[in-house]
Write a structure and sequence with these properties.
alpha/beta, TIM Barrel, eight-stranded parallel beta barrel, four-stranded antiparallel β-sheet, 12 helices, 12 strands, 17% strand, binds D-mannonic acid, binds manganese (II) ion
C-alpha cells in the first residue's frame, strides 16, 4: 500500500511542507479546484500541479476528484459534451503520469453533515450527522453550508436542479451511470487510469434525492455495469460504515481486487441514521479499524490509502474534516497497524 494525504492546493493552510513531515506519507491526493465542473482540465495545469507537489519531495498519486457534471447524472442537457470533456481530462491526466482518479455519482450534494464543528467530550470538534436535523433542513432556502459541495449554486439554480431530480428514480440514475461508464472506462483502459468511485456519504437518500453506491449489493451491481479492473472503487470506511448493515471488513474481502483507493477513518454510530466522526483508533468508534487494515493486508492490497477526515484538535482551525493534526495522527496510526500486522505475518 502507499500512504497518501489530501491537499487542497495552494490555498490550503495544511501546506505540502507540513505534509512532508508526516512520517511515511509519500503521496498527495489533490485536484484542480478552479475549473468549472464539466470543463476540460488542461495538460499544462495538471503538469503545474504535479511539479508543485514534486518540488516538495512528494508524489502526485491520486486525483480526488474529477467531478461529474449534473447533466451526466440526470442524463440530459449537454451530457455527451461533458462526457467527452471528462475523457479528455483523463487523457491529460494520464499524460502527466496520474494513474488513479476518484469521483462520485451523488446527485447535487457531496458529503452531508448536520454540524461541522460539534464538540466531543474531549473538547475536540468533529463533523456529525443527526437525522432529525437534516430532515428539517431545506437546501432551497440556502440553509446548508457543507464542506464538500459546489458553493456556486444560487437558490434558483438549486430549486431548478432539485425539481429536475424529482423525475429521476434510482433506476434512472443507474442507467445514467452505465451510460457514463460505457464511454469513460473505455478511455480509462486505453490510457491506463484506474477509476475509483467514492461511495455515497451518508449511504442513504437525502432531500428526496436518489443515492445508489450505498451497500454491498449495489457495489456488486456497479462493478458488473462495466467489468474491468479500470472500473473500480474508492472504499471509504467512514461513508459506508455509518450504516450498521455494511461490514467494511466483509467489503474489503469481497472487493479488494477492484479497490484502488482506500479511505480509512472511524465513525461512531450514535443512533438511527446518526453518527459522529470519531478519533481513528478502533475503540473510539463503531468500526474495527485494525480488522479493516488487516483485511487489506491479507488481501495483498497494493493501492493507495489515505486517512480521510480528522477531528479538529489542539485548537486548529481550517477546512472541516481536513485539518493537519488529527489526519496526521490517522496516517501514523494506520502505518503502525500495517507495520505490526506485517511483522507478525513474517
Ligand atoms: C469526502 C468527499 O469522504 C471523503 O473523502 O471528503 O468529499 C470525497 O472527496 C468525494 O465524495 C469524492 O468524490
Ligand atoms: Mn472518503
Amino acid at each position: 500500500m502507499k500512504m497518501t494525504f489530501r491537499w487542497y492546493g495552494e490555498d490550503d493552510p495544511v501546506t505540502l511542507e507540513k505534509i512532508k513531515q508526516i512520517p511515511a506519507v509519500s503521496g498527495i491526493v489533490s485536484a484542480i479546484y478552479d475549473i468549472p465542473v464539466g470543463e476540460v482540465w488542461p495538460y499544462e495545469r495538471i503538469l503545474r500541479l504535479k511539479e508543485t507537489v514534486e518540488a516538495a519531495g512528494l508524489e502526485l498519486s491520486v486525483i480526488e476528484s474529477v467531478p461529474v457534471h449534473e447533466d451526466i447524472k440526470t442524463g440530459d442537457g449537454d451530457r455527451d459534451r461533458y462526457i467527452n470533456n471528462y475523457c479528455e481530462t483523463l487523457r491529460n491526466l494520464a499524460k502527466a503520469g496520474v494513474d488513479c482518479v476518484c469521483y462520485n455519482f451523488m446527485p447535487v450534494f457531496d458529503w452531508t453533515r448536520s454540524n461541522l464543528a460539534y464538540e466531543l467530550s474531549d473538547g475536540s470538534n468533529a463533523l456529525i450527522y443527526d437525522n432529525e436535523t437534516v430532515l428539517k433542513m431545506d437546501p432551497v432556502k440556502g440553509e446548508l453550508s457543507l464542506p464538500g459541495w459546489d458553493a456556486s449554486y444560487t437558490k434558483d439554480d438549486m430549486k431548478a436542479l432539485l425539481d429536475k431530480y424529482k423525475n429521476i428514480s434510482e433506476e434512472d440514475l443507474w442507467n445514467n451511470l452505465k451510460y457514463f461508464l460505457d464511454r469513460v472506462i473505455k478511455v480509462a483502459e486505453e490510457v491506463k487510469v484506474k477509476m475509483a468511485i467514492h461511495p455515497d456519504d451518508p449511504p442513504w437518500g437525502i432531500f428526496g434525492l436518489p443515492r445508489i453506491i450505498t451497500n454491498k449489493k449495489n457495489i456488486e451491481r456497479f462493478l458488473k455495469l462495466y467489468d474491468s479492473p479500470y472500473n473500480g472503487l474508492t472504499l471509504c470506511s467512514g461513508s459506508l460504515g455509518v450504516s450498521p448493515d455494511n461490514d467494511i471488513v466483509e467489503l474489503v474481502n469481497a472487493f479488494c481486487d477492484r479497490i484502488h483507493f482506500a479511505h480509512i477513518r472511524n465513525i461512531k454510530i450514535t443512533g438511527e441514521r446518526c453518527f459522529e466522526e470519531s478519533a481513528h483508533k478502533t475503540e473510539y468508534g463503531s468500526l474495527d479499524i485494525y480488522g479493516i487494515v488487516k483485511a487489506y493486508y491479507d488481501n495483498g492490497f497494493d493501492g493507495y490509502i489515505r486517512p480521510d477526515h480528522g477531528r479538529m484538535i489542539w485548537g486548529e482551525t481550517g477546512k472541516p474534516g481536513y485539518g493537519l493534526f488529527d489526519r496526521a495522527l490517522g496516517a501514523v496510526y494506520l502505518n503502525g497497524l500495517w507495520e505490526a500486522i506485517d511483522r507478525s505475518a513474517k
